[in-house]
Amino acid sequence: MKQRTGEPWKSAPDYARELSAQSGGLSINLLVADVARAVAFQRDVLGAAVAYADADFAALEGFGAKWCVHADHTYDNHPLSGFVKGLKGRGPGVEIRLRGCDPDAAEGRARALGYVVLAAAMDKPHGLREAYMLDADGYCWVPDILLTSDA
User: What are all long-range contacts of 125-130, with beta carbons under 8 Å and residues at least 24 apart?
Assistant: First the structure.
């Protein structure tokens, strides 16, 4: 059951059309236990911009991407509602990559704010510098940047 009072900043159909026009064929909705807590990680650690947030939903953007966060309670009649209920972590095996997000800076903020850092920022053979960290819902975020070549 939705907890928002008042009108959202955009209608759901209007925002869906906007995302469809700009997403390049991929859209991500994250189901979370607490929208404010999820937004805090994505804003304070990853540097995402919050386009809109309330108790039920948040729209975030950064590094050329847009994504949505939905509170579990808004999915009460959704097929995923029974699947996620009671799960300790979400999205095992999925990496949510933010291209162009400085992994060293994000790692530092994650550590300072008490989040789990699975792997510190490091240069990888595939040409990226990346770090792995978990948000409060157990999603694995991977900020990465391209390594420059001296060759």
Answer: 129/103, 129/104, 130/97, 130/103
**pLDDT score at 89:** 74
Whether the predicted model's global pTM rises above the 0.85 cut = no
Domain positions in the chain are: 12-146
The Cα–Cα gap between 12 and 9 comes to 9
- Which residue, among 66, 64, 37, has the nearest Cα to 51 in the 3D structure? 66
List helix spans (H) across 7-102: 12-22, 35-44, 81-84
Q: What is the residue whose two structure tokens read 């909705």?
A: 29
Structural domain 12-146, CATH architecture:
Roll (3.10)
Asked if the model's pLDDT at residue 81 lies above 70, the reply is no
